[in-house]
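Hi R.,

Here's the chain you asked about this morning:
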Amino acid sequence: MDIRGTTSPDVSRRATGPTDLLAQQQPALGAFWMAGFPDEQAGVDVLVAAARSGASVLEVGAPAADPWLDGPAIAATHHHVRRAGHGMDVTLATVRQVSALTGKPVIVMSYWATVSAYGPQRTALELAASGAVGCLVPDVPPESVAAWAAAAADAGISAPLLVGREASAAELSAVCRAATGFVYAPAVAGQRTGYSDGLDLDGLASFVAAIRRAAPTTPVLTGIGVSTPALAAAVVRRPGVAGVVIGSPLIRAFADGGLSEAAGLVAEFAAAVAR
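And the predicted structure, written out as tokens:
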């Protein structure tokens, strides 16, 4: 599947923000891919193919030196891209191309060390200029949350936040109140991305209910452990779940069969969550 050079007038526009999209299109399917993996063009191709196969939100990973939340599959993509000498440059280039080619909301996932080193205000402004509608930072230090949220708001992008399953009631409330765009809720506790040993759906439902009590109007996306289309279908049936994000399954599919295999898997997930 060759998707290069396929911009058309009806999609070469700034996409609507994630909150608007999630309010209108539920359940949503998010597809994560590392910018620059295995090279810059391939990274764009996978995300465009994911959009064409049913993904409604596209999440671009910013390469990091210490991807502590990521399991082996995604961590390897971070290290691959960094060995090639890329950082925020390839992230911005990928966002720019994917946003123009798809018209879908593009969210960047970046660790705080990357944002801090590049500069929070600069990060937010350059992401916005490239077409991103938000930047999920899973590990913003509590003392920096307000400043990061303000920088994102000033740039016109959202600042989704991750709330850990181990968070105290006070911590959960503070994170959920500060998050904009959506709250990211891990589907399993204490695991990295790529976890595939099943999940406690009732426990996830209770966790999402607590988030919704703290932030009734903010959509909740979940991932980590949502390893199959069947699990994705079960997860989005839980009250309060606006959608799921897949990453590691997509990387494994690409490794097994290239772009067509990855696109086919996204189509399977999209069909499952839409039922």
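The chain has a mean pLDDT of 90.

Let me know if you need anything else.
M.
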